[in-house]
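Notebook entry, cofactor series.
This is the third protein in the set we're modelling with a bound small molecule. For this one the ligand is SKM. I'm keeping the input format identical across the series so the outputs can be compared line by line later. Sequence and SMILES below, as received.
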Amino acid sequence: MEAKVSQGLQLGTWINPQKLARKPSSSLQFPHNYEEQRWDNGPGSCPLRTNKGKLRRTLVLKVSCSSENVPASVLDSGSISALFDESQILKNKSEEIKPCLNGRCIYLVGMMGSGKTTVGKVLSEALGYSFHDCDTLIEQAVGGTTVAEIFKLHGESFFRDNETKVLQKLSSMHRLVVSTGGGAVVRPTNWRHMQKGISVWLDVPLEALARRITAVGTVSRPLLHHDYGDPYSKTMKRLSALYEERGEAYANANARVSVENIAAKLGYQDVCNVTPTAIAIEVLLQIENFLRE
Ligand SMILES: Nc1ncnc2c1ncn2[C@@H]1O[C@H](COP(=O)(O)OP(=O)(O)OP(=O)(O)O)[C@@H](O)[C@H]1O
Ligand SMILES: O=C(O)C1=C[C@@H](O)[C@@H](O)[C@H](O)C1
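Returned structure with ligand:
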């Protein structure tokens, strides 16, 4: 039986971590002669628009594949792209969306551990953008101290002031994928900076976040240092409290990527099986939806 596939996500393997590290993340330069490109329909133009400037739907990836070996759950769920190399899908989608971005930056927001850094690196590589991690830039700005040290020595508001300065600096640049700190969404000023680009909320269930963070430890995450109990329970408790405070703020983002929805599309029981590449593809699909609005 043949299955026609137009777009979607693949059941893939974990991305090679060496590939993730390829983009340098320390320089914040952008060419002075940068000019915004018009949305025309020439080569490399935005496919979401017709000559009259109206948005249209495009199906870029049309591939035939055999449905043999595809789990029934995947086919039943409508997620029929299991046989693709998801890196190739990401590449194709990036090429399609890139002209529509007009060089605008992509800001990934979300709770700590939601994968902003991991997914951000994959996405930046696919788009040919530079990747920047706000926490790292703050650490550099404060003289090479870690986030945990900055919290300890100077307090949270000092850290937040530096976070705002970093976002302000980034907002004047183009073609960046930015991994913001988990708490960047709480200050309205930060949103004003991020509005120069496109913001995307990586929405990951708290249980999955707690599992990931417990696996790597909370040393680098000062806001998780306070509670008592077993590592998973105390992380879960603190994350729940933070989410209670911030849930609405994350929803200010231009687009939301629900990792739970991706898992459902792919027929996965566990959201932890959704790869960063699959999430990056969904980021682009949701940006596409946002640009069509
Ligand atoms: N899709 C994924 N599946 C499984 N584990 C993942 C996934 N994405 C990220 N991780 C793991 O989760 C942990 C947190 O990821 P990452 O550092 O990218 O999150 P973050 O949102 O940047 O966190 P923070 O805001 O605290 O810096 C890492 O150990 C990473 O390897
Ligand atoms: O959720 C938060 O408030 C934080 C998340 C991290 O990325 C760091 O920015 C810092 O640990 C604070």
